[in-house]
């Protein structure tokens, strides 16, 4: 029987130069429910689908504020995400304390990337089993970074990770040119439409299962911030209603790679 | 004869009597720096409508000895800020190297488009560093002025001393300057509002006047000094000499040196 | 591969009976899948260039830099696993900093290559770690000027211990470090997927003669990345380049990005050279007429 000898730990290369443990950790991201992030010239937006373990239980949070100007979306192992999010919060605070400035997002992304890389090179450690979207606004404007368990962090214009996220990415790619000049609410709507693409039949976005996070510049070119805020429940109703009737988006595009079904 | 290693190099007990081990008593409190050694005197600085002017002379004194006469006590950071150092010169050199490394670290990122530390960030950092060191009872014996622009491109000027104390004002000076130069500068910029009325030329003139008074009255000063003008376009750093000196009044001063009457 | 199934390739630092460390060889495989990196040591500076394969349309154009500054005068580019490259860069910066702390002077390119060679080699020694999945190219320009020791007083002895070495010193440096920790100095270095084609092009430049100047080297580096990318035409890519000149050159001794206009011109020439190349192939003429 075939057995892969090269996938037991993260310190063994396969003959092709791959590290299977790290690739498997990447699969853990796809077990999580989908999150979408996108940026315009003035705003950075995160939208997410929350899951509940059973009908009567509460929903697992997907979006978190890291600092006034930084927000986080997670897909994968929540407990791993918490380790990274606590680390990011501490790093942001330390920048405020020692320099009196907001942490530059590029630097923040590099810090978690480097932290995660170490787990892929030492025996007895395992890669983080979570993917992140780190977003926010700093001195140089809005940013969005994708973090992968391998430690790879890349700056994106828009991105989606988690279960069935391929459909959302397809939507984002199709509409990419429109995002840059979007206003705040229009950007949120694009996010929600991308999210809708990932839904399996008979499921829909509701005020219970949808989270929206927004950060931005109050005015283009000015420095005043709209600080990152997570909107849940009744707060997302108007946004949901505003995309409720555009059926032309339609979840019928059955491409995608036959990934894990939600729940 | 005692051949144990701990007796090596010691006077022989049988000849000189038992060694008084209390000299090796290590129960004394730890002591770090108790005073500065080689020192620089005043740094003066004032804001004007588009920036800040700062000056400090080139002397490093060893007590009352004018030991080094070409020491530059203003240093720039990232071509956007100026730091003036009063107090211990070796601690200044330590901070200078430290700032060089900080500058290199910051430049890793800023290729992409300007996350440079501005003067406010720099001042915050230095004051934290100074406070950290005084809390270890091992202070860096300096009084710093930090000048530059803040995040809104407004002139920024603030001080930090060896205790980690910070303060800010339209005009600031360290050492003797706080007695001799500060009153002069306050005539022109008593408050933030008045900064708007001061031109660059006027500010330079006032600072030069301060350096003149300081040279005449401060015995630990000299007549060569660095002068920096920082605006949003960068830093102009120049070397100056106090010209047209007049020591005629010295004749009439009594009560110093070998003079007995 | 003969190694598979023998068991000697399942852990790092294990020798096979014929004296090979397979895990290091597999790490090299990771490098060979990465975008091509090139370094050229010209007579008055160094150029680094990398082919950044665009893996997704959603990536922000022009972001995600792959060439890193290690110290003011030092740059690093790498092919292979990008997170490992970041680790390499971080360590390089630590080394450069600790050198400054100790010696009060910037680290030389050769010393940095030596330190980092040692670091990578250490990751081949233990079963508890894996080798780096990158090959790095380190470029730098060691100052030719008389460098003051910070805070120095007087000029010091002229001969003997602490005396100054007569003659020219400093200049451009280029080194390539492999996962095994082995490193060599180069006139022109290439690694990653397109290294074979790139090396062939580099050899044609006769770099050892020391005639190529920095401005020409920028154009050649851009062209070589385009040539090396030819076998992979369908993949979109971004070209990223940096350079380092002497103190009186365009970068004033510092490692920095090649300015946009110069980069654009180099890319234009590269594309032109490629298309001319294609034409020539079609006409079955002798290849490679253009030296420019």
Automatic annotation (TrEMBL), chain A:
Pfam family, one: Proteasome
Nucleus found in the keyword field: yes
CDD domains linked to this entry: proteasome_alpha_type_1
Listed SUPFAM superfamilies: N-terminal nucleophile aminohydrolases (Ntn hydrolases)
Keywords, sorted A to Z: Cytoplasm, Nucleus, Proteasome
Domain Proteasome alpha-type subunits span(s) in chain numbering: 6-28
Record localization: Cytoplasm; Nucleus
One cellular component (GO) term of this entry: nucleus
Gene Ontology biological process terms in this record: ubiquitin-dependent protein catabolic process
Known partners and oligomeric status: The 26S proteasome consists of a 20S proteasome core and two 19S regulatory subunits.
Record family assignment: Belongs to the peptidase T1A family.
Protein name: Proteasome subunit alpha type
From TrEMBL, chain B:
Cell compartments where the protein resides: Cytoplasm; Nucleus
Origin: domain of life: Eukaryota
PROSITE patterns assigned: PROTEASOME_BETA_1, PROTEASOME_BETA_2
Entry-linked InterPro entries: Ntn_hydrolases_N (IPR029055), Proteasome_beta4 (IPR016295), Proteasome_bsu_CS (IPR016050), Proteasome_sua/b (IPR001353), Proteasome_suB-type (IPR023333)
GO cellular component, one term: proteasome core complex, beta-subunit complex
Keyword annotations of the record: Cytoplasm, Nucleus, Proteasome
One Gene Ontology biological process: proteolysis involved in protein catabolic process
UniProt keyword annotation of Cytoplasm present: yes
Pfam families for this protein: Proteasome (PF00227)
Cytoplasm found in the keyword field: yes
SUPFAM superfamilies reported in the protein's UniProt record: N-terminal nucleophile aminohydrolases (Ntn hydrolases)
Task of the protein: Non-catalytic component of the proteasome.
Family: Belongs to the peptidase T1B family.
Identification of the protein by name: Proteasome subunit beta
Species lineage: Eukaryota, Fungi, Dikarya, Ascomycota, Pezizomycotina
Automatic annotation (TrEMBL), chain C:
Iron-sulfur in keyword set: no
Primary localisation category: cytoplasm
Subcellular locations according to the entry: Cytoplasm; Nucleus
Short name of any one Pfam family annotated for the protein: Proteasome_A_N
Biased composition (Acidic residues): 276-285
Annotated region described as Disordered, given as residue ranges: 267-292
GO cellular component: cytoplasm; nucleus; proteasome core complex, alpha-subunit complex
Keywords in alphabetical order: Cytoplasm, Nucleus, Proteasome
GO biological process: ubiquitin-dependent protein catabolic process
Proteasome alpha-type subunits domain segment(s): 8-30
Family membership noted in the UniProt record: Belongs to the peptidase T1A family.
Oligomer status and interactors: The 26S proteasome consists of a 20S proteasome core and two 19S regulatory subunits.
Name listed for the protein in its UniProt record: Proteasome subunit alpha type
């Amino acid at each position: 029987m075939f057995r892969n000898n090269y996938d037991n730990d993260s310190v063994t290369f396969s003959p092709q130069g791959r590290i299977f443990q790290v690739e498997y950790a990447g699969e853990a991201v796809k077990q999580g429910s989908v999150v979408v992030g996108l940026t315009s010239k003035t705003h950075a937006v995160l939208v997410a689908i929350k899951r509940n373990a059973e009908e009567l239980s509460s929903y697992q949070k997907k979006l978190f504020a890291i600092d006034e100007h930084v927000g986080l979306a997670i897909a994968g192992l929540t407990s791993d995400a918490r380790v990274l999010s606590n680390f990011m919060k501490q790093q942001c605070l330390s920048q405020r304390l020692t320099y009196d400035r907001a942490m530059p997002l590029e630097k923040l992304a590099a810090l978690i990337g480097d932290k995660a890389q170490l787990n892929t090179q030492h025996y007895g450690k395992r890669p983080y089993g979570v993917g992140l979207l780190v977003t926010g606004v700093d001195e140089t404007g809005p940013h969005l970074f994708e973090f992968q368990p391998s430690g790879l962090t890349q700056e994106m214009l828009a991105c989606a990770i988690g279960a069935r996220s391929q459909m959302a990415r397809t939507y984002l790619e199709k509409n990419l040119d429109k995002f840059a000049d979007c206003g705040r609410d229009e950007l949120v709507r694009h996010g929600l439409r991308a999210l809708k693409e990932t839904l399996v039949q008979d499921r829909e976005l509701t005020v219970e299962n949808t989270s929206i996070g927004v950060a931005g510049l109050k005015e283009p070119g000015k420095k005043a911030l709209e600080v990152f805020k997570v909107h849940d429940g009744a707060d997302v109703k108007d946004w949901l209603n505003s995309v409720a009737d555009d059926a032309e988006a339609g979840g019928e595009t059955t491409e995608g790679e036959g990934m894990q079904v939600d729940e | 004869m005692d051949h144990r290693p701990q007796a090596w190099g010691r006077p022989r007990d049988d000849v000189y009597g038992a060694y008084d081990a209390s000299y090796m008593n290590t129960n004394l409190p730890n002591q770090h720096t108790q005073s500065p050694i080689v020192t620089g005197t005043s740094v003066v600085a004032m804001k004007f409508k588009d920036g800040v002017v700062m000056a400090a002379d080139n002397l490093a004194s060893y007590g009352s000895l004018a030991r080094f006469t070409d020491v530059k006590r203003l240093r720039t950071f990232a071509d956007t800020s100026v730091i003036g150092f009063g107090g211990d010169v070796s601690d200044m050199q330590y901070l200078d190297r430290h700032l060089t490394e900080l500058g290199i670290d910051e430049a890793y990122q800023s290729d992409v488009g300007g996350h440079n530390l501005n003067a406010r960030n720099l001042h915050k950092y230095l004051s934290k560093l100074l406070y950290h060191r005084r809390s270890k009872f091992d202070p860096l014996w300096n009084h710093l002025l930090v000048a530059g622009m803040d995040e809104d491109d407004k002139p920024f000027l603030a001080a930090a001393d060896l205790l980690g104390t910070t303060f800010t004002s339209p005009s600031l000076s360290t050492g003797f300057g706080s007695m001799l130069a500060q009153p002069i500068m306050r005539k022109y910029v008593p408050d933030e509002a008045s900064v708007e009325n001061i031109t660059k030329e006027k500010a330079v003139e006032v600072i030069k006047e301060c350096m003149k008074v300081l040279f005449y009255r401060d015995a630990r000063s000299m007549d060569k000094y660095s002068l920096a003008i920082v605006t949003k376009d960068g830093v102009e750093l120049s070397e100056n000499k106090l010209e047209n000196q007049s020591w005629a009044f010295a004749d009439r001063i009594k009560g110093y040196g070998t003079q007995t009457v | 591969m003969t190694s598979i199934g023998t068991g000697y390739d399942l852990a790092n630092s294990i020798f096979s009976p014929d004296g090979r460390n397979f895990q290091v060889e597999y790490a090299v495989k990771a490098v060979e899948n990465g975008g091509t990196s090139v370094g050229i040591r010209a007579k008055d500076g160094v150029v680094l260039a990398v082919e950044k394969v665009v893996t997704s349309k959603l990536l922000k154009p022009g972001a995600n830099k792959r060439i890193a500054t290690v110290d003011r005068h030092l740059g690093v580019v790498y092919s292979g696993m990008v997170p490992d490259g970041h680790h390499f860069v971080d360590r390089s910066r630590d080394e450069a900093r600790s050198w400054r702390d100790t010696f009060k002077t910037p680290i030389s390119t050769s010393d940095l290559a030596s330190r980092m060679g040692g670091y990578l080699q250490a990751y081949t020694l233990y079963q508890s770690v894996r080798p780096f999945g990158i090959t790095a190219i380190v470029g730098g320009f060691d100052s030719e000027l008389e460098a003051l020791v910070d805070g120095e007083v007087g000029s010091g002895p002229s001969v003997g211990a602490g005396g100054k070495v007569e003659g020219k010193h400093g200049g451009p440096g280029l080194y390539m470090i492999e996962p095994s920790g082995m490193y060599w100095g180069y006139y022109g270095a290439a690694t990653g997927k397109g290294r074979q084609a790139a090396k062939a092009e580099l050899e044609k430049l006769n770099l050892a003669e020391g005639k190529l100047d920095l401005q020409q080297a920028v154009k050649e580096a851009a062209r070589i990345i385009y040539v090396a990318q030819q076998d992979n035409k369908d993949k979109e890519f971004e070209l990223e380049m940096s350079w380092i000149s002497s103190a009186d050159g365009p970068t004033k001794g510092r490692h920095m990005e090649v300015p946009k206009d110069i980069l654009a011109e180099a890319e234009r020439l590269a594309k032109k050279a490629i298309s001319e190349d294609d034409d020539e192939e079609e006409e079955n003429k002798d290849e490679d007429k253009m030296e420019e």
